[in-house]
């Protein structure tokens, strides 16, 4: 086999390869001989047909198969000999196989993986969020839990903020009805997030059995778009007004949260532990996010176009599937590759860096680390032991926990080298609470 390697660009290569045909003829003859033993032709018993007839029917097919196999093998041997790491599939060009005489010549154009270069880990600056869960944080969490278990009791007074009201409603724009609840009515809690404030303000003060009409002008950027920039006239009738009743922080409340003996202090201790676990997860996520960003920003290499295109296609397919699952009409949505290019560049760059970092420093997860990750996955299920058994029943199922555990090793390695400083943060800021 003769070959010539040509550098087209920083990442693109072209190899011209010449494969002698004589050794391949023996393979072709051997395959045809094997086929002749079972081939069926009219007028001949199986295995008794002349080789000329077998060749006439199957010769071109066998030749193409042998030559295609020779191209695939010779290309693999060539890139190994030239010590090239091929990114994606090559574009192979050759003359028709039946035109080859003494040698089979073809060219393969492809991209190679770049030399992955990233910044000095020791110079990377990472801020580690530091927070201690206090009594105030536990109290806020309890307040949320209490509000989630609110009940409502009917009252005869006028509705005020925090009350639950049931109203029948008709909405019209320019005199044309666009929405109606019919006779059933809808339940609304006055002051809850997600509605235009002026709407709830108009509903405040109403009493059971009374009706009211008012106009609401929606801003130009309002969602849904059907109401954006429009003035809507509402006709409402109050069916019921109920005031909120919050449960007491007593033994019954503790039991409702799974504390069998109703011990309120035990309930608070478990909430504190739960918050500490969530804080640890959020801190870990913040650190990983900073590490990944620092690695990407320090990258100094080109990305193979074929890898970038593959990532863009993957993201487009995932987005389309998600939209479809949500009931979106994909025929009305046009997804363009440009929408995903920047995100694809980042994820591809990060994947190449992590691969280099992991392979160079031997950071692949060991069996214990993989098992620990499986245990984490299983804890969110009712029967964790069954989940663990399921994962280990098929080695392929361990790919995800193995990849995540390896990723954690890479993050820990970078943190061990980088300049990490502690930064105190507020509980609400870490949790993303408004």
In short:
It contains twelve helices and twelve strands. By secondary structure, it is an alpha+beta fold.
Number of self-contained structural domains: 3
| CATH class category name of the largest domain | Mainly Alpha
Helix content: 40-55%
**How large is the radius of gyration?**
34 Å
- What name is given to the CATH topology of the largest domain? Trigger factor, domain 2
Separate helix tally? 12
- What is the annotated CATH architecture of the largest domain? Orthogonal Bundle
First and last CA, distance: 68 Å
Q: Extract low-pLDDT stretches.
A: none
CATH superfamily of the largest domain: Trigger factor, C-terminal domain
SSE sequence, one letter per element = EEHHEEEHEEEEHEEHHHHHHHEH
Question: How would you sum up this structure, described in words?
Answer:
- Helices cover 45% and strands 21% of the residues.
- It is of the alpha+beta class.
- It folds into 3 domains: 2-112, Alpha-Beta Plaits; 151-245, Chitinase A, domain 3; 261-431, Trigger factor, C-terminal domain (Trigger factor, domain 2, Orthogonal Bundle), CATH 1.10.3120.10.
- The strands form 3 sheets. Strands 6, 7, 8, 9, 10 and 11 form a 6-stranded antiparallel β-sheet that branches. It has a 4-stranded antiparallel β-sheet with strand order 1-2-4-3, with helices on both faces. A two-stranded parallel sheet has the order 5-12.
- A hairpin with a 2-residue loop joins strand 7 (164-173) and strand 8.
- The longest helix is centred in the middle third of the chain and has 34 residues, at 264-297.
- The radius of gyration is 34 Å and the shape is elongated.
- The relative contact order is 0.11.
- The model has no long low-confidence stretch (mean pLDDT 92).
- Belongs to the FKBP-type PPIase family. Tig subfamily.
- GO terms for molecular function: peptidyl-prolyl cis-trans isomerase activity; protein folding chaperone; ribosome binding.
- Its EC number is 5.2.1.8.
- Residues 1-144 form the Trigger factor ribosome-binding bacterial domain.
